[in-house]
Amino acid sequence: MTPSIRLSGAEVRRGGRTLWSGLDLDVAPGEFVTVLGPNGSGKTTLLMVLLGLLGLSAGTCEVGGRPPRRGSPTVGYVPQQKNLDPLTPLRGRDLVGLGLDGHRFGPAFRHRAERARRVREALLQVDALDWADAPVGALSGGEQQRLRIAQALVGDPGLLLADEPLLSLDLARQRTVVELIERRRREHGTAVVFVTHELNPVLPVTDRVLYLVDGQFRIGTPDEVMTSETLSELYRTDVEVVRVRDRILVVGAEDRLVPTGGHP
Fold this sequence. Notes:
Elements: E1 5-14, E2 17-27, E3 32-36, H1 43-50, E4 58-63, E5 75-78, H2 92-101, H3 112-125, H4 141-153, E6 159-163, H5 171-188, E7 191-195, E8 208-213, E9 216-220, H6 222-225, H7 228-235, E10 239-244, E11 247-252
Parallel strand pairs: 3-7, 3-8, 5-6, 6-7
Antiparallel strand pairs: 1-2, 1-4, 8-9, 10-11
Helix pairs in contact: 2-3, 2-4, 3-4, 4-5
């Protein structure tokens, strides 16, 4: 089976700094990989590589067996959560439809009936059909994020990339977003790469963790990576990992540098 993602000896250098190098990673169809690390460690940069927006400095990258390319219909992308301006002149269905033809020059998606069907199906997948004709700027942050997920799914992607999609959302809305993405992964075999500062909301659905710190990284199951020994090696300082029921708490010498995974 062709991996959804294959990185071999991958390296990215920006501004004279190596963000990460020697990265070997195969992501299987239907696998959920959570990417963790402090700000500036290259988490979003990894997504830019997979989206075909940034080239590697060394090594190779394949998405679905091919080099990544801009606007690929096989890749869905959920950006960081930012509330849209109340005056944004778009309805819910318009925002979702951009996932089909927002990257194209010239005429929009050719077949209007097919476009409408696919947009409606994507809205149904995220339980957002009631907002199809609502002005997106009038919706809450959680409702807008559902529409962004529908936008990412409307092209029926085999790979879903999510960049901090839980930011600024309360716990209930975080749970909803994770459930929507997990449902897609489970029902369609879609591979997921999920960038976040908070592991706990996605811990139950995470197959493997990619933890990036200062040019170094570790890959493995949460139990393999989220240990005091492993994180202390990555941060080059004492880091303590504590499990409290079904949550992981991380405490470091400089807490602001270490993603905590949330609070009990």
